[in-house]
Amino acid sequence: MTNIEELKKELEQVLSPSRFQHSLNVMEKAKELASSYQIDIKTAMLTGLAHDIAKEMNDQELLLFAKNHHLDISQVEKAKPTLLHGKVGAIILKEKYGFTKEMQDAVEFHTTGRKNMTMLDKIIYVADKIEDGRKNIPVELKELATKNIDIVLKYFYTTAIEKAIRKDSVLHPLTIEARNDLLVQQLEKEKE
């Protein structure tokens, strides 16, 4: 597995200073959440650090990379190619750094979410949203993330849906599926 310090040096060369700092912050938050949920800390840290490796690629670069790697590109991703940065990043991390399938999935779905998210998926998704550089994140939400990550996930899914509606913007269907999946799981628990 890749060394954290080596990956930091390489990412510092390819990311803008603000994106690199965000990645460091996500790594630290992923470490904290991994500790709370008994997930391998090094895996969470590496995944958090690398989650935005393709974020600064432009639309044409993302679309070309996706085409060259025979990735399925949805209609929504064609309309808003920046949504591809998770998919593209996952491939780069596999090819260049040997990231595991679990780590790739967490990177691929850190923007959209998905049904049946693993704990690593949830940690990276939430760490990206609540890292210490983010403004206007309620302290209670950050604290709740270490106790009940599903409530925090549902909050961010709902917020993403509401924001897309307000801005009259496209929304990736995986976000709706992810929110519905959490709600169904919650209903099933209540029936027990």
Characterize this entry briefly:
With 192 residues, this protein is mainly α.
Indicate the CATH architecture: Orthogonal Bundle
Kindly report the name of the CATH homologous superfamily. Answer: Hypothetical protein af1432
Bulk shape:
globular
Count of the separate structural domains: 1
Overview of the molecule:
- This protein has 192 residues and is mainly alpha-helical.
- The chain has a single domain (4-191), classed as Hypothetical protein af1432 (Orthogonal Bundle).
- Helix content is 69%, strand content 0%.
- The protein contains eleven helices and no strands.
- Helix 10 crosses helix 11 (173-191).
- The longest helix has 20 residues, at 17-36.
- The protein is globular and about 45 Å long.
